[in-house]
Amino acid sequence: MRLQTICCPGGCMDFLNALVTLLNFVLVPATAYGAQLALGALGVTLIYGILRFSNFAHGDTMAFGTAITILFTWWLQSGGIGLGPLPTALLALPVGVLATALLLLATDRVVYRFYRRQRANPVILVIVSMGVMFVMNGLTRFVIGVGEISFTDGERFLVDAKAFRDATGLAEGLSIRMTQALTIVIAVIAVTALFWFLNRTRAGKSMRAFSDNEDLALLSGINPERVVAITWIIAGTLATLAGVLYGLDKSFKVFNYYQLLLPIFAAAIVGGIGNPLGAIAGGFLIAYSEVALTYAFKKVLGYLLPDSLAPDGLVQLLSTDYKLAVSFSILVIVLLFKPTGILKGKTI
Amino acid sequence: MTRNLRGILLFGAVALLFVIEGQTVSWNSALGILNVGLISAIVALGVNLQWGYGGLFNIGVVGFFALGGLAPVLISSPPQPEIWAAGGPRLIAAFAVAILATAVAVYAYGRTRGRLRVALILLFLVLGFFGYRALFDPAAGAIEQINSSTAGNIGGLGLPVLLAWPVGAVFAAAAAWAIGKIALGLRSDYLAIATLGIGEIIVAVLKNEDWLARGVKNVIGLPRPVPYEVDLQASPAFVARATGWGLDPVTASSILVKLCYAGLFLAVLLVLVWLAELALKSPWGRMMRGIRDNETAAEAMGKDVTRRHLQLFILGSALCGLAGAMMVTLDGQFTPGTYNPLRFTYVIWLMVIIGGSGNNWGAVLGSLLIWYLWVKVEPWGHDILAFATSGMADGSAFKQHLLDSAAHMRLMTMGVILLLVLRFSPRGLLPEK
Prior knowledge:
The complex is a heterodimer. By secondary structure, chain A is mainly alpha-helical. Chain A is built from 15 helices and 2 strands. Chain B is mainly alpha-helical. Chain B is 77% helix and 0% strand. Chain B has 18 helices and no strands. In chain B, α1 (3-24) packs antiparallel against α2 (27-54), α3 (61-76) runs parallel beside α7 (188-208) and α3 packs across α15. Chain B is globular and about 75 Å long. Classes of the chains: A mainly alpha, B mainly alpha. The interface between A and B is large, with 46 and 45 residues.
């Protein structure tokens, strides 16, 4: 009892309340956001490792995949088909993945292949990807418009704040939204499958070999077009997953997906571009920093500190309008002190 | 066909487009497109300096452009002494604390090692941050409270607006120096990402810092370097002359104002092209192209590649800032909500690439042409879709969707044009020599 009063003056209840508040507003949302960023950054990093350019169309690829998924979700909903407590979008996801993969393969055939055969300078490919971004952005706007769309349905909460309060007697209720839990579960499955594929299968190994040393891989009979096609399919799948999960968790708006480009690239570079493990580490680092620095800690500190010391202001280090500045600052710090990223990058 | 003839023909064709617009729609509309096209041409010159001469990939153009747009607000809007007195000195103190803390941290970085270094730097930065916020928050709050419906910002210096143009260039150059110091010398894509970030952040700051330039509440009624339409219409001499030419005074006044702007912008543009051409033909220009074409060889010849790149990056961004200030002057208002990266970064890139990277006249040609298309494609798209859907039943949801989507045709058209040019004519309309 005495120890409790020393460690947190308001008693242990206050400490638990503070912890639950922190979980609610920082840890759980940041974990879900981190998983979404990690999925996006994995796509960027794979394309970088195999095709050797930074794909600026990735944000709009995510938007396109999400738009198709939303259209199919609406169709399913109009037919009265659903998944009960889970969002209907999960059922529509395979269609979105398929459409995105096909679009990327077609883009590669029509646009990128020419430059690959020419062995064009990577920076030319970056500009080309800018053109692809324009087209995809226009396509997505054409298909679904520019407005904000919320397409989540089913059960809203996995852990409901009120039920939690009643069960535990705490003043703060823990709430975990279904979409957040779903994001984490799907991200874990996707990443496990990806690593299994890269490390255990023949195709995955040939991808790693190609990324490591293109000439040597060609010499040993690996078909480059096949490796490239697999890369686009995986990147399209990851992009659609990331986009749909982000859209379910927050909402879908084409311009917001363009703006995800910065945190996603920051995650890939911070982790070491070309390194899948790094992309995951980078995604979570960016997400936790972004949420922690823009969260107002007034409530948490109010529970932890004695009343006389309770803060007057919001104790918010940065306004949420500047969340982009967080990923940017982390990127700058890494570029200044460790340009190859936290985990050494450049090959998968 | 010789190079010069090709250039003259292409410029003639673009001029013809503007004449057709003037004859078939209105001269007001044609001059309106021309003015923004001329401003875009200055941005395109800046991007061409970076990309065409140096191979630097800057996709934060919108940020430098927006930062330049801040200059007319700070230089030429009327001074607000009582608002300044409420928080100005404290703001300066806050910035002084921030700069001092950063300087001390940088000094500590150079003088210490290991864990002590990390601890000291963190200590100085955290102390500096809290000191800055302690001074800044109340000062900004005090400023924003005064007359928040019409002012609520620190106001300007009340100087002539033309003075704001070079100041805008200096603002953008300063930002470019900071970002160039960090990202130049690393891989080329890293500069792209870093500029993407700084562009977004500058726009976010301008949107949210109400004490500076009212944020999304906009600053309106900035002074002009040219006469006002209402004054012209009130002047009997002008009305007499306009009617003498068979023009209605209202139209004539707005055309005259637009012509004045066009003259100003054209003068600035021509001086800049002349300077850029001079630089390109000088030993400095040859060195720059040498660096672009073979960095290793240039380095072996003793050229400091990173420093030269920094120089180009700062010069190019300064042009973006200059154009930003000119744009705000033309609009007479500062509206941070309108700084959209698609419009102010990617379309500019399109202009440079289609015009011919590395060729200044190409950048100008590309700007005028693409800006004309950018304005016209939307109504055309609407007409085409209206024609294509004319057979469908009225009121059908699909027809309505297609008609509503006409606005998005622009992006797709621009993307397709960019991809086609890159694929089939990568050197652009007016190739580099």
